[in-house]
Design a protein that fits this description.
The structure is a homodimer. Chain A contains 13 helices and twelve strands. By secondary structure, chain A is α/β, with parallel strands linked by helices. In chain A, the strands form three sheets. The first copy, chain A, has a seven-stranded parallel β-sheet, with helices on both faces. Chain A has a three-stranded antiparallel β-sheet with strand order 7-6-8. At the A-B interface, helix 3, helix 4 and helix 5 of A face helix 3, helix 4 and helix 5 of B.
Chain lengths: 319, 319
């Protein structure tokens, strides 16, 4: 790889992806990293524009993420939510007080005419985050889940309904028609792009929307640099929690083989967990490069180590 | 007074007025009281519609008001504000977490198309408040203060600038053109209206906007029932704090005589504090009825006692 190629484009969903994004932020120079975040889980709620994945990535990069609860801001309180509940307002989506500060800031600036890219750049800079965190698109894209009662917005299905309805389909409303954000388009077009890292986020729900943004799949097909995905699976069995139910109902197989097949020709290299080491031989047999390493990220050291492993898989050696 | 006349219309600004409104709410049956609240201090901030006087009255009636700080909600926390500050957002208006729950609920429902009257009825009912709290108008009216730099919205002048600019004038933008809210108009037109009580709020800044609503002054001039004002003054000298500076610059005299003159022919009866008992003779000499009593409201007992005194001044005897 040319020494002049050094920029890394990371694609991330929420919590798991955010951890690796934070690790990449620690081991790469700020100018060498663009983190593109899924916005298809975003939603409008109580007059606020909530961007769960952008927030997860932002809090992780700012060191504000709650590592025990696994989502949201650490040292969170819930006073506004208690008042909203007393006022008879919807309480199915739990909004912490510190988190609300973020939603309020974002929402009023969007209403004032700033793009989501501009707002995200402003707010992440204010929190001292150096690498660029950019939404996949400034145009709203919304994941929806088909049910017997019609299409449900993802958060309503996932949080309010707790995935109870039987899923009949999944779609990303708004694409085609959503161009990549300026930062995403610029990163894809960089002369010095060295690698694309797909963070350990759900391929179907978090990464697919990014790939569905206008022109993105074609740009990735045409790329000349490695694409490395870090599998979100640990212990092969399944994605944790109710999303396994959703994917099962949609006939999506779960496993590293299925993930590799899903990404298909886009994928050069898959990083899988040591618990799934048995998957490696078969994957390699089909021509894929595979790295087997610990992918569970308990702390900053884990995040940095996995970031280095993913970069190394892309031919980028760090410090 | 006819036994069939029993409805009381109270006009209120913020903190002081809210205390008496809460007292009236304790001594009158819910159906016998309409509390009309000044909305000219309302403002848009960070995408939220904030109604300081409606909130003060609501919190006082719900027993949620912070009596030590003198404004806002008791047991308040400030986590969202800390996040907003970290995000570089305006922090000149301090927004508590519980208070934010109120602003968020109100703002999204206004955006969804409910009127301020509808939102206020909904939210106060949810908090278990039985008497009607109604905005003076559903159309925005905004108090503005003239300065060398032009007209400043009231909260900006009062909170952000802490009344530092020299005031050259005061105006209520939006009137004429703002009709009374349905609840205000209905109360003014009731056959069983027994009295109008002007709560101890600033006559120039809190009560005048209510009187400036389309047709209200004429309706009050034409009324057939007593109008009793409770003076906001205690110890004669002055209104507390920076508002004294504002009124001085505008050439407004401060004192019970000035207040009586200001309300003029509208006023039948003025309730003044025992500390200002010396004012009584002169006021009575000009034909006004005067009640001298303690008007400082430290607790629920004070509020109820003053409410009974004001009602008694209007010829309404309670329990």
């Amino acid at each position: 790889m040319s020494a002049s190629r050094r920029h890394v484009l990371a694609l991330s969903g929420g919590v798991g992806g955010a951890k690796l994004a934070a690790g990449l932020g620690r081991v790469l120079a700020p100018d060498d990293l663009t983190i593109v975040v899924n916005t298809a889980d975003d939603f409008e709620h109580l007059g606020l524009t909530i961007c769960p994945d952008i927030d997860s990535v932002t809090y992780a990069l700012a060191g504000l993420n709650d590592t025990e609860r696994g989502w949201g801001v650490k040292d969170e309180t819930w006073q506004a939510m208690a008042m909203l509940r007393a006022l008879g307002e919807a309480d199915w989506f739990n909004l912490g007080d510190r988190d609300l500060g973020m939603h309020i800031a974002r929402s009023w600036r969007l209403r004032a005419g700033e793009s989501l890219s501009e707002v995200t750049a402003r707010l992440t800079r204010q929190l001292g985050i150096a690498p660029a965190i950019v939404p996949m698109s400034d145009v709203p894209v919304r994941t929806q889940v088909g049910t017997a009662d019609g299409w449900l917005d993802f958060q309503r299905y996932f949080v309010a309904e707790q995935c109870r309805p039987v899923a009949t389909g999944i779609r990303f409303a708004g694409v085609p028609g959503a161009p990549p954000s300026p930062g995403f388009a610029a990163a894809l077009a960089r002369d010095d792009l060295a690698a694309v890292i797909v963070c350990p986020s759900n391929p179907y729900l978090s990464v697919d929307p990014i790939l569905a943004v206008d022109g993105v799949r074609a740009a990735l097909v045409a790329r000349k640099v490695p694409l490395v995905a870090v599998s979100p699976l640990v212990g092969g069995a399944a994605l944790k929690g109710p999303l396994a139910k959703l994917l099962g109902e949609l006939g999506q197989e779960v496993g590293n083989r299925a993930i590799a097949d899903h990404y298909g020709a886009l994928l050069d290299h898959l990083v899988i967990d040591t618990a799934d080491a048995a998957d490696a031989q078969g994957l390699r047999g089909s021509g894929l490069c595979v790295t087997v390493t610990g992918t569970v990220m308990h702390d900053a050291q884990d995040r940095e180590r996995l970031a280095r492993a993913a970069l190394s898989a892309a031919g980028i050696e760090t410090g």
